[in-house]
Structures are given as C-alpha cells and as structure tokens.
Amino acid sequence: MRLRDAVVAEFLGSALLLATVVGSGIMGDRLAGGNVGIALLANTLATGAGLVALIATFISISGAHFNPLVTLAEVCLGKLRWKHAGAYIAAQATGAVAGVVAAHGMFDLPLFEVSRHVRTGPSQWWSEVVASFGLLTVILNVAKRRMAFVPVAVGAYITAAYWFTASTSFANPTVTIARSFTDTFAGIRPVDAPGFIISELVGGALAVLLFRWLERSHTSSQRAPEAAGEQQTRDGGRRLREVSVDKTKKTGVRGTPRR
C-alpha cells in the first residue's frame, strides 16, 4: 500500500460519503413536503447504497476506512502505524468537510453554515455508543472472515442503524464534525458535537476490546483439540513402551534372539 494513494482514497471516499449524506438529506427534506419519516427514509437509502459503492471502490487502495474509529482500531490491532493513522484521519476530516461544501454547492446553499440542529442528551449519547460499537463489531469481524462482504455488511448495518438509534447513527467523529457545518436535515450543532464524538470513541473502544477477546477465545478453542491430540499421541507412545518392557521382563529376552 502506498501512503499517498491511500490518503487520496480516504479523502475522496470521505468527501463523497458526506456529499451523499448531506445532499440526500437536503433532497429528501425538500421533496417530502414536511414528512420527516419520508425524508429520513430517503436519507437512509442513499447513505446505505453510497457506502456499499464507496467501500467497494476504495477498499483495495486504503481499506476504505472513511472513519477515524476504523483507523484507530487498525492501529490498536497492529495493522496500521501511528504515523500513517495521522495522515488517514487528516484526509478523512478534510474530505468530509469538502463533501459538505460540495453538497451545499449542488443545492445552491451557502458553502459553509453553522448548524442549529439540536442533538444532545443521554439518549443521543447512548445511541452513539451503541451505533459505533455495532459498526466496529461488524467491520472487524466481517473483515477478518469474509472481506468481500464488508461493503454490503457496512451499508446494511448503517441502513438499519439509522432507524434503530435515536441519533440516526453518526458513528463517525469526522462525519460529526463535518455535519456541524450544515444547517440542513443532516446537521448537528457544534456545541453538541463533542458529546457525540466522545460517545463514538467509547463505542469503538468497546468493540475493539470485544474483538480481541473473541480472537483469544477462538484461538484457545482451536489450540485445545491440537493439544489434546498431541497428548493422546504421547500417551499412546508411552503405553507402547510400557507393554514392550513388560513383555521383555516376562520372556527374559531383549532384542532379536540369535539362531
């Protein structure tokens, strides 16, 4: 992996992801005629489909993180160096903001806004813990066993999490920061962003701890039969030696008798 290529992929992927999230939110809100459920459905379907396409496009170049939680998890698991992680996260953050600007430009809005969309309180924070924990759990475990399924798994999870979490599943610190620059359907007040980001980091950390525990448990369960087989082999050899010695004692004969 060339770091330059990976950074470009993370920038573009994050930009297109935020353009999808914010742009579909604006379009859905305008066409829904005040029906928030329809607007959310439009936003959900576009985001889920966009994630599948973007991850499939960039996964072979950078791993298609588009999310500091994924990048930090890779560092904690020894799959990415810290110096590379910094470049990844910088690309994700700048790309995400660029995506918001692109969406505003497409819908003839000011390129930068300060969001007034209130998203705060224990239920919102807990929702982000759950959403982030679930997202990282899906990514880490699917990537370990079925890498080709990662795009669909992530897109499907986010589509579901939009609806089962009170926060509509941001689950991404750079997404949270970028969405504070849009006063549209997808926005979040800058003052509310820190609570979301802390919750997301907590959820991500819990997912990494769970993944490590599952990996240790899985490794131990694989080693147990191997150890048992080795012990049986040693026991069998010992029994054969004991039988041979016993026969020698009874016959008084050692080795091959001479004729």
UniProtKB/TrEMBL annotation:
Residues 232-249 have a biased composition (Basic and acidic residues). Residues 221-259 are annotated as: Disordered. It is a multi-pass membrane protein. It comes from Pandoraea terrae. This is Aquaporin Z. It comes from the Bacteria. One of its GO terms (molecular function) is water channel activity. The chain crosses the membrane at residues 7-26, 38-64, 85-105, 125-143, 148-165, 193-214. Keywords: Membrane, Transmembrane, Transmembrane helix, Transport. The keyword Transcription regulation does not apply. InterPro entries: Aquaporin-like, Aquaporin_transptr, MIP. Its main location: membrane. Belongs to the MIP/aquaporin (TC 1.A.8) family. It is found in: Membrane. GO terms for cellular component: plasma membrane. Residues 250-259 have a biased composition (Basic residues).
